[in-house]
Design goal:
103 residues; 53% helix; 8% strand
């Protein structure tokens, strides 16, 4: 059981590193993992997130809030890819307002 759990965490770690915050399940649900700044999590953040999945009763953490323990401990968020990219694009366009004034 311990070997299976470690392999499970390793699978998540490798897939989220290789696919930049996405696992097979995240491709299916059209979501991805980001850090508080909207970037792909660092290797350490991804490792912490994957290792935190080994915490027993982790599934019980979801009724307590919108994030699981592994997201809270690794300071990551799971976001909808399309909504995230849309808001990121709008934020970039908003920052361009007035950029050429005064030149």
């Amino acid at each position: 059981m311990l070997i299976t759990s470690v392999l499970f965490a390793l699978l998540y770690f490798l897939s989220e590193v290789i696919f930049k915050g996405r696992s097979i399940g995240k491709f299916i649900t059209k979501t991805k993992v980001v850090d508080p700044y909207g970037n792909t999590p660092s290797l350490m953040g991804t490792f912490t997130r994957s290792a935190s999945r080994l915490i027993p009763f982790n599934g019980l953490s979801f009724p307590m809030g919108a994030r699981g323990w592994y997201d809270a401990l690794s300071k990551t968020y799971v976001v909808d890819v399309y909504e995230f990219e849309k808001k990121k694009r709008l934020f970039g366009e908003f920052n361009q307002i007035g950029a050429g004034i005064g030149r």
